């Protein structure tokens, strides 16, 4: 079984090329301005359209895993996800395009007909293995991965969500492209946090390069909207700690591979804030309050969002920027003093998951 956990295991030249390619993809995605109130609104950045089959942030997160897979053209990939996983969906679509095999280990035992997402996975050629929730919890244990390798033969392991340092490295392209936009505040939905870490590290790269050239960087603040309840117990890993950890690890990778000095301080220019309170009951929960917001927002602005991630982030953005128009949404737990007229909203994709909520 092949485990690749760091971009440093990949050839420097290929890594640079891939990041450059991803940056150009991010730059090329259209954004459109949405007026929420007179002279207040958001720029909706359509990263969901970056690729017709692997939507949004998964396109960026999976790029390095695919680069690593090129070294082992004969091996299948194996990864993990839930029954409506955007990650597995994107991975299966790319596997089909690249004529590679994918083993999709899906959480929960299953009976009866496949749901539309799983049916798509199968039609795209993935081999699906359903495992109990207990087994699924062992998805990161070497012992369990070895058991799977005995069953399936050798494979390239892509961790659940395609995250970690490999995933976050690709997401840096989003931060690099965002740094070129003339908007201070950026809104992003957060699951595992690897996209957020990548965006911050990408903003760091742009900032450090400017400082090293003697230019004044533009100020950026990333507003993170967690869709999963944050762990508060001291012994539990918190997504915010994970973001900090990956961001600093990436700084070391970028120093080594891109020659961007990690010691150049960016804290005056690149900041982030956690905007909690928009989980709407927790991961995958879609209470009536959120459903009402989503349908009214979508019909008013002709935008399509996904219930798990982008709808929750959009609820935060609307409350943030045009509070008086959205009194039914949760209150903002923290609000910085500056008056914000404009936000850059990252549409991270996930639209196939709407089917899990009976939305088309
Ligand atoms: C997976 C996903 C996210 C969360 O990304 P993380 O890197 O896990 O934080 C956000 N939005 C969409 C649409 C996703 O599919």
Key terms:
single chain; 360 residues; alpha/beta; Rossmann fold; 2 domains; 6-stranded mixed β-sheet; 5-stranded parallel β-sheet; 11 helices; binds pyridoxal-5'-phosphate
CATH topology value of the largest domain = Rossmann fold
Q: Could you give the distance between the termini?
A: 38 Å
- Helicity range: 40-55%
Low-confidence stretches: none
Small molecules (ligands, ions, cofactors) in the structure: pyridoxal-5'-phosphate
**In CATH's first tier, which class of the largest domain applies?**
Alpha Beta
Count of domains: 2
Largest sheet: 6 strands, mixed
Spatial sequence of strands, sheet with the most strands? 2-3-11-8-9-10
Order of helices and strands: EHEEHEHEHEHHEHEHEHEHHE
Pairing-aware structural class of the strands and helices?
Answer: alpha/beta
Number of beta strands: 11
Beta fraction? 15-25%
Tally the helices.
Answer: 11
| CATH 2nd-level architecture of the largest domain | 3-Layer(aba) Sandwich
Q: Rounded to an integer, what's the Rg over CA atoms?
A: 20 Å
**What's the pLDDT, averaged over the residues?**
95
Task: Identify the overall geometry.
Answer: globular
């Amino acid at each position: 079984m092949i485990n690749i956990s760091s971009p440093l295991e990949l050839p420097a030249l290929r890594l640079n090329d891939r990041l450059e390619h991803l940056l150009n993809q991010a730059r090329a995605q259209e954004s459109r301005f949405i007026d929420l109130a007179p002279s207040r609104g958001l720029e909706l950045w359509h990263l969901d359209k970056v690729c017709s089959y692997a939507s949004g942030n998964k396109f960026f997160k999976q790029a390095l895993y695919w680069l690593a897979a090129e070294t082992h053209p004969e091996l299948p990939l194996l990864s993990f996800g839930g029954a409506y996983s955007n990650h597995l969906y994107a991975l299966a679509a790319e596997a089909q395009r690249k004529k590679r095999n994918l083993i999709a280990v899906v959480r929960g035992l299953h009976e009866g007909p496949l749901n539309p997402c799983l049916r798509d996975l199968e039609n795209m050629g993935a081999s699906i293995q359903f495992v109990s929730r207990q087994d699924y919890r062992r998805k990161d244990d070497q012992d369990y991965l070895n058991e799977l390798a005995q069953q399936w033969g050798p494979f390239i392991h892509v961790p659940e969500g395609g995250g970690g340092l490999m995933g976050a490295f690709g997401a840096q392209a989003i931060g690099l492209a965002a740094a070129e936009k003339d908007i201070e505040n950026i809104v992003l939905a957060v699951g595992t946090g690897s996209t957020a870490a990548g965006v911050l590290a990408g903003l760091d790269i742009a900032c450090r390069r400017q400082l090293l050239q003697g230019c004044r960087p533009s100020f950026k603040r990333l507003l993170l909207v967690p869709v999963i309840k944050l762990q508060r117990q001291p012994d539990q890993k918190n997504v915010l700690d994970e973001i900090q950890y990956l961001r600093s690890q990436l700084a070391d990778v970028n120093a080594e591979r891109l020659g961007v000095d990690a010691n150049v301080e960016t804290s005056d220019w690149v900041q982030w804030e956690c905007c909690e309170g928009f989980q709407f009951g927790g991961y995958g929960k879609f209470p009536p309050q959120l459903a009402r917001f989503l349908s009214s927002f979508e019909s008013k602005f002709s935008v399509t969002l996904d219930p798990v991630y982008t709808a929750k982030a959009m609820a935060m953005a609307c409350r943030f920027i045009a509070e008086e128009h959205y009194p039914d949404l949760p209150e903002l737990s923290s609000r910085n003093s500056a008056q914000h007229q404009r936000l850059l909203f990252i549409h991270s994709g996930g639209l196939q998951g709407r089917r899990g909520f009976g939305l088309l």
